[in-house]
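Note to self: keep these together.
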Amino acid sequence: MKYYLFIDESGDHGLKTIDESFPVFLLCGVLISENEFSKINLVVNNTKLKYWNNTNVILHSRDIRKCNNEFKILFDLKIKEQFYNDLNSILTSSNYKIICSAIDKISFIKKYGKLEDDVYEIALSFILERTIFCLDELQDCDTLEIIIEKRGKKEDAKLANHLNKLNQVGTFYVDAERMKKYAVKHCFLDKRKNNNGLQISDLLAYPIARKILFPEGVNISYELIKDKFYTKNGKRYGLKIFP
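Structure:
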């Protein structure tokens, strides 16, 4: 069976300047089988049809929170309540696993200095490694396709080189042979391609990042999806916080 790993981010991946109000970079992976993605894709598109009478709307966490662009309809509190109920139902009832990695940028710089111009590759390595752990347990995957939102030609080329290297040599805990077992491949998609898998990843990333930043704060969105994290031997392997 084929699996997808949809990846999106929350926060800035650069280390040159630190936003003190949001000093975390989080990369969120959504691991889902091809069959399950067909189901969630249909439900998401039906939801878009329900509120906009078309499937062209791109679900973007920040726009939803700010009621921007197409989401101005959420200024109507009745529509907002219904929309959030529908969205929460999709996120809680669908069959997928969250595998994400967060970099505490302040702690990272204190420990390692500004060794990299960004931490995207480090976070991605952690996610791919734990995705392989998860697929080993599932035992029904023969192909893994990693789908990442485009950032720019230079950035995408750099990341593609990193992914190719991981395929060739593996990671600290996963050797190249285990990678080859799943015929890992990747592609970059423009946001305008309107991929619902990437949109699900975007919706999940923000509440997880907020939970890391404010662990004692009220975070209803996180509470709804916390059981979706990949767990192994009772431990939450689906959330790696580094360092």
